[in-house]
Amino acid sequence: MRINPSLISPVLTVLYRAWIRSIRFQDGGGPMAIRAAADSGRPVMLAIWHSELFALTGYGMRVLDGRLATVVSDSRDGEIIAQVLERIGYGTARGSSTRGGLKALMALKRHMERGRIGVITVDGPRGPRHQVKDGAVYLAQRAGALLFPVRSRPQRMHVFDRSWDKFQLPMPFCRCPVYFGEPLEFTSEKLTPETLAFESARLQAALMSALPEA
Prior knowledge:
Blueprint lengths: L4 H18 L1 E3 L4 H9 L4 E5 L4 H11 L4 E5 L3 H12 L3 E4 L6 H13 L3 E5 L12 H10 L2 E7 L4 E4 L6 E4 L4 E6 L12 H18 L4
Parallel strand pairs: 1-9, 2-5, 2-6, 3-4, 3-5
Antiparallel strand pairs: 6-9, 7-8
Helix pairs in contact: 1-3, 1-4, 5-6, 6-7
């Protein structure tokens, strides 16, 4: 039986808000640089791994409320997610790497041009895990955006080991440090396949190094 997204999304929104409000985020003042860059009028993007999106989406809701936009799948499940995200203050751009990808990236670019901060799961929606895809660098370069790598490490979480990304579900009331890597800028020159591969590898290394060793 198919569930009407407009019926279930309000319930999921309430549950998600309550879950996220119970988490004790710690960020060491990282969002100050993000706000400053966005307030200057420059397009800004946040790059995250798909496995960490539950915590980081909620962190963005609490710390950068009303300023974020992200890509959401065009699928039926994506419609439910999009409605929840819009209810918590996110802008959405519909599409994925397998369907409507370029259209979604350009829609996210328009959100950034209107002052929102773009968020992109750089290894989503289907992996491989922790392998940066070309879309993040392509969009950052086209938009002239400053890109911040962002990571999280919930102190208590359930890891879905059978999922492709080993998805992390932070437990309610846990402490969750959030870490920010140095912002990246990309060449304004035309992106050749070789340059795109090099810049994607640079972003991948920045995301890996943003999370301190446990």
